[in-house]
Amino acid sequence: MITALLLLAQVQNPCQPCHAQIVASYAKTAMARTSSKDSSILRPAERFLEPITQTNFSVSPTLELHFSKQDAFEGTRQLDWVIGSGRVGHSLLFTQGNRLFQSPLSYYSEAGKWQLSPGFQRRPQLDLTRVVEPGCLNCHTSSFNPATLAIEPGISCARCHGHSPQHIATAGKVAALNPKKLPAHERDSICAQCHLTGSARVAKFRPSGDTYQPGKKLSDFSAIFVGGQAEVSSTIGVTSHYENLALSKCKIASGDKLSCTTCHDPHSEPTNAATHFNAKCESCHQNKACPKAPKGDCIQCHMPKAAGRGVDHSSYTNHSIPRTANEAKPGISSTLTSFWSTEANPRDLGLAYAGQSARHPGALATGTNS
Ligand code: HEC
Ligand code: HEC
Ligand code: HEC
Ligand code: HEC
Ligand code: HEC
Ligand code: HEC
Ligand code: HEC
Asked: Could you give the CA distance from residue 325 to residue 327 in angstroms, rounded to a whole number?
C-alpha cells in the first residue's frame, strides 16, 4: 500500500524521468511529507486504538472529532487534512462548507499524546471556529486554491525551483532555476519564504498583485519584523531558524558564504547527524581546532537542542551557534525592527503592530513605550 502510494507519487512527478535519484531521496524528507490527505501516515500509536478524550473533545480511531458542550451543543467533524510530517507532531484540519478549519487537538510526537493545538491553550472556551489562515497552507503545501480548496500536498520541487516547462520540453537544454547560481539574497529568499517567521510578517502592497516566486527577492513581497513581544516568543516562533542563524558569529563573520544549504541538503536528511554536521563545521574551522574538544561532536555543544519540542514553531536546534551553553539565548530587541537591511515602510510597520496587538493584547503597549 505505502509502496504503491510512493510509486504513484513518483510517476506523477514531472522531474522523475531525468532526476530519479533526487526524486526518490527527496520523497523521504519531512518537507516532501509535510501535508497529506492520507491519514494512514499517522503511525498506529497515534491512531487512538482507544478513543482519547480531553475536555469536551475526543477523537475516534477513524479520525472523527466529537465535541459536546454543557449547553448540549454536540457534533462530529471528519478530520481530513494532516499537516506536519510527525517528526514533531501533526495538526489536523477539517472542511466545513467551503472553508478549512483547524482541529483544537494536535498530536505531539515527543509527548506521544494528543493535546490542545498551539493557540488554543489561551482560549477560555474551546470552539471549532478557527479558520486555517492561508499562510499555514502556503508553508505546508505545494499549492492551494482558496476558492475550491484544491490542495497539492507536500512541498514540491517547484517551490524551490519554480515552474520550468521549457526545461522539461528541451530535456534540460533550457536550464531550470538552480538556487546555487542565484545572488545571495535571491538564493536565501527561497528557504526564507517558509523558514523566516519573524514576529510579524506583512504582505507588501504590490499594484500588480503578483506573489513571490523562486528567483525573486522575498523582501519585495513580505515585510518581516523581528523583536517585539519577547515574553510570548515561544508560542509564536520568534526564534525561527533563519533569524537565529543570522545572530551567529559564523554567519556574521562569513556573510553570504554561509547559507542554509552549507549544512542542509534540501533533497535528503542525514542518516548520521554527527558525522554529517562535523564535516560542515570543519569545512570552515579546520585551521583552528576547538580548544575544548577538537575531535568532539560539534553540534552537541554548539547547536544544543531545546527541551519540550512542540508544534508551535519554536526553533528546536539552536541556530545561533553559541560559544558556550550559557550564551544559548541570544538577546532579541523588544521593539519591532525590519529583518531586511532596508528600512521598514511605515504602512508595513503599522500593520505589523496592529496584527500583534490583535493577537496579543499587551503587545502594542510594549511596542509603543520602548
Ligand atoms: C527530460 C529530462 C529532464 C526533466 C524531465 C527534468 N530535467 Fe532537470 N535537468 C535535465 C538535464 C539533462 C540537466 C543537466 C543540464 C546541465 O547540466 O547542463 C538538468 C539539470 C537540472 C538542474 C540544474 C540546473 C543548473 O543550471 O545547474 C535543475 C535545478 C533541474 N534540472 C531541475 C529540474 C526539475 C525541478 C525538474 C522537474 C520540474 C526537472 N529538472 C525535470 C533534464 C531534465
Ligand atoms: C514551501 C515552504 C518551505 C520551503 C520553501 C523550504 N522549507 Fe524547509 N521545511 C518546511 C516545512 C513546513 C518543514 C517541516 C516539515 C515537517 O516536519 O512537517 C520544513 C523542514 C525543514 C527541515 C527539517 C527537516 C529535518 O531533517 O528534520 C530542514 C533542514 C529544512 N526544512 C531546510 C530547508 C532549506 C535548506 C530550504 C531552502 C533550500 C527550505 N527548507 C525551504 C517548509 C519549507
Ligand atoms: C511561515 C511558514 C509557516 C507557517 C505560516 C506555518 N508553518 Fe508549520 N512549520 C513551518 C516550518 C518551517 C516547520 C518546521 C520547522 C520548525 O518546527 O520550526 C513547521 C512545523 C510544523 C509542525 C510540526 C511538523 C513536524 O512534525 O515536524 C506542525 C504540526 C505545523 N507546523 C503546523 C502548522 C499549522 C497547523 C499552521 C497554520 C495554523 C502552520 N504550521 C503555519 C512553517 C510554517
Ligand atoms: C527545499 C527546496 C528544494 C526542493 C523542494 C527541491 N530542491 Fe532541488 N535544489 C535546491 C537547492 C538549494 C539546490 C542547490 C544545492 C546546492 O547549493 O548545492 C538544488 C539543486 C538541484 C539540482 C541540481 C543538481 C544538484 O544536485 O545540485 C537538481 C537537478 C534538483 N535540485 C532537482 C530537484 C528535484 C527534481 C526536486 C523535487 C523532487 C527538488 N530539486 C526539490 C532546493 C530544493
Ligand atoms: C562558512 C564557514 C563556517 C561554517 C560552516 C561554520 N562556521 Fe563557525 N565560525 C565561522 C567564522 C568565520 C567564525 C568567526 C571567527 C572564528 O571564531 O573562527 C565562526 C565562529 C564560531 C564560533 C565562536 C562563536 C563565538 O561566539 O565566539 C563557534 C563556537 C563556531 N563557529 C562553531 C561552529 C560549529 C559548531 C559549526 C558547525 C555546526 C560551524 N561553526 C560552522 C565560520 C563558519
Ligand atoms: C552550521 C550548520 C547549519 C546551518 C547553516 C543551518 N542549520 Fe539547520 N540544523 C543544523 C543542525 C546541526 C540541526 C539539527 C539536526 C539534527 O539533530 O539532526 C539543524 C536542524 C534544522 C531543522 C530541524 C528542526 C530543528 O530545529 O532541529 C530545521 C527546520 C533547520 N535546521 C532549518 C535551517 C534553515 C532554514 C537554515 C538557514 C536559515 C539552517 N537550518 C541553517 C545545522 C545548520
Ligand atoms: C564538549 C563540548 C564541545 C564540543 C564537542 C565542541 N566544542 Fe567547541 N567549544 C566548546 C567550549 C566550551 C568553547 C569555549 C572555550 C573557551 O571560551 O575557552 C568552545 C569554543 C569553540 C570555538 C571558538 C574558539 C575560539 O578560539 O574563539 C570554535 C570555533 C569551536 N569551539 C568549534 C568547534 C567545532 C568545529 C567542534 C567540532 C569539531 C567543537 N567546537 C566541538 C565546547 C565544545
From this structure: 5
Reported as a pLDDT band with limits 50, 70 and 90, residue 201 is confident
Question: What grid cell was written down for 2?
Answer: 505505502
104-122: pLDDT as tens digits: 888 888 777 788 888 777 6
328 ligand 7 Cβ < 6 A: no
Closest-CA residue to 92 (of 76, 81, 78):
81
Instruction: Encode pLDDT of 303-361 as tens digits.
Output: 988 765 555 666 588 898 999 876 655 555 667 778 877 777 888 888 888 777 665 54
- What CA–CA distance (Å, rounded) separates 140 from 135? 9
What are the tens digits of pLDDT across the range 202-243? 889 999 989 999 999 999 999 988 776 543 333 334 457 888
Grid cell of 315 as nine digits: 526553533
Residues with CB under 6 A from ligand 5: 249-250, 253-254, 257-258, 262, 277, 280-281, 283-285, 288, 298-299, 302-303, 321, 323
Residue 192 Cβ inside 6 Å of ligand 6? The answer reads: no
Choice from 284, 292, 305 to test ligand 7 binding pocket (greatest atom count within 8 A of CB): 292
Pocket of ligand 3 (CB under 6 A): 30, 83-91, 102, 132, 135-136, 139-140, 194-195, 197, 311, 313, 315
Instruction: Report the C-alpha gap between 332 and 133 in whole angstroms.
Output: 27
Contacts of 352 (CB under 8 A, 6+ apart): 200, 201, 202, 223, 225, 228, 336, 344
